[in-house]
Target: ATP-binding protein
Amino acid sequence: MTRQQDGDRRGASFLVMLLRRGTPALATATTGLTDEIGDPTPVRALQRISRMAGPVDERQRDGLLLRAARYVVLVPLVYRLLVVPATFASYAVKHGSAGLASVAVVAVCSVALSAFGLFWMMRRAPFRSDLAGRLLVADLVATLAFELFMGATVSPAVFHDAVGVADKHLLGSVALVTLAVGIPSGIGLAALSLPVRLLSDLLNHGTFDFAQAASLYPTMFGVLFTAVGALILLGLGIRLALAYGIRNGRLAERARQHRMLHDTVLQTLEAIALGGPGDSDQRLVEVQRLARAQAIELRQTIETAAAQRAEEGARPLGEKLAALAAEMARDGLRAQLVIAELDNDTLSEVRQIAIRDAVREAMRNTMKHAETDKVVVRVEERNGGIAVITRDHGTGFSPQDRPAGFGISESITARLSEVGGTSLVESSPGSGTRVTLWVPL
Model:
C-alpha cells in the first residue's frame, strides 16, 4: 500500500499538479526531465507538450524555483493597484459626492492591501508559506467584505457603479488565488462571489438582482482563463528551458571530454602507431614511456571529478562555512562570516563536519523562525578549542515557553556531543538568538 502510494506521488503529472496547486508546483519542474523533452528534432506540438507535462516527483522541490514562483502573483496585485484607483476616479467624476465616502474607503483599503502584498512578496526575509496562507485568507475575507460594505452603505441609485470598484478588486483576487493556490480555489472564489453579491443586493435595495450579479461572470471567466493560460505557459516553458539547459550542458561536457581525449590519449596512440627510429628494444622503451606518461595524465583527469566531489570534505573549516553561506544564500538567508586565523590542521575532519552541520541547522532555524534574512557567523579559538557563534537579530523566543525540539536537541546538541563538543542556545523574545558551538582541538 505504501509503495503504491509512493509510486503514485512520483508519477504525478506536472500539468495536473500545476493546475491544482498553482505556482508552488513549479518547484517540482526540475524532476522527471527526459531526453525527449530537450530533443531539438521537430515533433508535433501536442507530443512535445505531453512530454513536458509528464510525471514529476512532488517530494523533490527546488528551493530557488520555489522562491521565484511567488513573484508570479505580483501581476494581479499590480492589476488591483492600477485598476481600482482608476475605477474610483471614474465613479467620482460620474457621481460626484454621492456615496463617495464609502467607495473611497473600499478603494483605499484595496490599494493598501495590494501595496502591502507587493511589499511582503518583495521583502528580503525568507519566504514563509504558512504566513503567506494567512495573509491570503485575510485578503479574501476583505474582498468579500468590500461587496457587502457597498451594499450596506451606498444608496440604490449609485449602487451598481459603486460596487464596480469592489468588483475590480474581486477580479484581481480571483487571478491571485488561481495563480497562488490553483484552479479549484479560483473557481471556488468565483462561485462564492455570486451569493455574496446577491446578499449585497439584498442589503442595498431589499431584492435579489440575479442578472446584475451574474453580469460579472463573463469577465471573471476571462480572468480565470488568462490565469490558467499563464500557469500553463509558465510551467511548460520552465520545463522546456530546463530540459534544453541540461541537454546543452551534457553536450558541452561531452565536447570537453572529446577534446581531452583527442589531445591526450589519441595523440599518444598515434605516436605509438607511427613508431620511430631505432631497434625494437628502443621502440619498446619509448612506447612504455609514452604509455606511462599518458596513464598518469589520464588518471589525473579522471580523478579530478572525484576530487571535486570530495572537495567539500577536504576543505578547511572556513571554506566549509563559506560554502554553507552560499548554500543558505540560495534559499534567501544572507550570512556574514567573521573568521579568525585558525590552524585547520589541529581540528579533525569529523569535528569540522559536525560544526558545519550544526551551523546549518542553526541557520535553518533562523530562516524558519526568526523572520530575518541576516545572520552573523563568527569563528574563533576559545578555551582550547574552536567556537562558532551564530547570531541573528530576529524575533527570538523564550526557552522556557518553547522547549528544544529535534533540530536543537539532535541536529545541534547531540551532533556536537558525539565529537566531544558543546552547544549553547541563548534567546529572548525580541532580542534574537545566539547559538554557540564549541569543539576541542
